[in-house]
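In response to reviewer comment 3 from the previous cycle, which asked for concrete evidence that the modeling workflow produces usable outputs, we include below a single protein chain processed end to end. The sequence was submitted unchanged, and the resulting structure tokens are shown without manual editing.
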Amino acid sequence: MLNTSNNNTRKMIVINGGHFSSLAGFYEEVSGILMRDADWKVGTLDGFNDVLHGGFGVFEYKEEIEIVWKESEKSREDLGLEATEEFYENKIRQGKPFNIKLAQEKLKDLREGKGQTLFEILVEIIESHGDIRLRLG
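The workflow returned the following structure tokens.
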């Protein structure tokens, strides 16, 4: 959902965690919201990061936006430890073009309680963009 009326000048974009329960579902959700008029869809973490730069979706390059992630606690659980282990296991199983060694290290860190879950990675990607304010709800 895109809403241009909020209490500041930022365009508000709403991601609803109730609409998905997997990383593929998250990509579908954000593609439908951020890329709704484009024929390109988000399908990777790098692709999601690229879209957040702006300029080829619903907001312009360097435009200040606010992302409201509704039902973020559900997403935190859905994209938590189990989903993240599966994500890295799939990369290891598929092999090239994925960096198997890196995926193995990430999986090891995750299992030792030192790694990031997919939810934490997505939040970090969003927060790495200075023009984007993230609100979890």
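The first strand starts at residue 2 and ends at 3. We consider this sufficient to address the reviewer's concern, and the full set will be provided in the supplementary archive.
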